[in-house]
Write a structure and sequence with these properties.
36% helix, nine-stranded antiparallel beta sheet, alpha+beta, 337 residues, Cyclophilin, 3 domains, single chain, Serine Threonine Protein Phosphatase 5, Tetratricopeptide repeat
């Protein structure tokens, strides 16, 4: 379906305003253009552009950076709810989330009573409304801002020694995209629920590339297997699970799901052969975009919080085979469905 001329003009005008750093005018133009969208693709394009503008506005206006970036993140998420496989939108959102994580800015737009020293409208209301009503309002806002409940979230408790020699304990929360990689998500969750990931290590860490762990068998990168029977023995299709030992079970690739290797993405490690994933996984740190792995290794999750721990782990000293000199431990994995 062709894009309406008026909508094209609005997109171009908003881009021009963005170049001139007229951020509010650009966002206003997109709001007026919203009714012109005739299909989901046009809505996604408009929402992504709003997210791009908000991201740029936050970078330019540091005094209100948190507010601008949270609004931009909300625009990206609305776009991805319409089209979860839109690569450009997800790439731009991942970039924004990395910047927010560096500045310790949360993704939720929490209720504000003051903005830059002045009471907000909500703050004025809060001064005159009874406490119980405020609590109810907070709950309603919180519910509205929650992530898509259909996707499970896992918490990885990690332990590592930073460059000061101190052992750090931290938690990494990751959303799993079960609609885009159902086999990988089920496999990961089953391993976690069976406690197989507990007290394993990140055995391979490469600064500027990725951190890899999940070898539930040998913990040296040479082991690991699928949590359930998915029809493959060492990457080869097999008739039944009795065709091979459980240590040889692997899972089918789902690498064509549209998810890319951007900072904060969780993906399945495997050999160069197809369908050879088992339990090992890796996470991409900030600044790394290993696009040569796109469409080869299955991306199936995204970091929601704790990217700072991933970035710190990538810098730990390593020895032979990129193994950290001091163990980087995966203490426990909790599934929060």
């Amino acid at each position: 379906m062709p894009v309406p001329d008026e909508l094209l003009k609005s997109w171009d005008l908003a881009d021009s305003m963005l170049s001139d750093e007229k951020f509010e005018e650009a966002l206003s133009e997109l709001r007026q253009a919203w009714p012109l969208c005739e299909n989901d693709g046009q809505k996604v394009r408009t929402l992504r552009q709003a997210g791009d503008i908000g991201t740029a506005q936050g970078t330019h206006d540091e005094s209100s950076q948190k507010r601008h970036w949270q609004k931009a993140l909300k625009s990206y998420k609305r776009a991805l709810k319409i089209d979860p496989k839109n690569k450009e939108t997800r790439r731009n959102m991942n970039s924004l989330m990395s910047m927010m994580d560096e500045k310790s800015i949360t993704g939720g737009a929490n209720m504000q009573f003051f903005d830059e020293g002045n009471p907000t409208p909500m703050g004025l209301v809060a001064m005159v409304i009874a406490g119980m009503i405020i609590l109810t309002s907070i709950k309603l806002i919180s519910d509205a801002l929650q992530e898509d409940p259909e996707n499970p979230v896992v918490s990885l408790e990690v332990s590592y020694v930073d460059d000061s020699g101190e052992r750090i304990e931290g938690t990494i929360q990751i959303e799993l995209f079960q609609d885009l990689a159902p086999v990988h998500v089920e496999n990961f969750i089953t391993h976690a629920q069976n406690f197989r990931y507990d007290f394993t290590i990140f055995h391979r860490v490469i600064d500027g590339f990725m951190i890899q762990g999940g070898d539930v068998d040998r913990q040296d990168g040479m082991g690991g297997y699928a949590a359930n029977w998915y029809g493959y023995c060492n990457g080869e299709s097999a008739a039944s699970q009795s065709s091979c030992d459980q240590s040889e079970w692997t899972i089918p690739d789902e690498a064509d799901n549209g998810l890319l290797h951007s900072p904060g993405m969780l993906a399945m490690a495997k050999t160069s052969a197809a369908n050879t994933g088992g339990s090992q996984f890796y996470i991409v740190p900030t600044g790394s975009t290993p696009s040569h792995l796109d469409g080869v290794h299955t991306v199936f999750g995204q970091v929601l919080s704790g990217q700072n721990h991933i970035d710190a782990i990538q810098e730990v000293p390593t020895g032979d085979n990129d193994k950290p000199i001091e163990d980087v431990r995966l203490v426990h994995v909790t599934v929060n469905e």
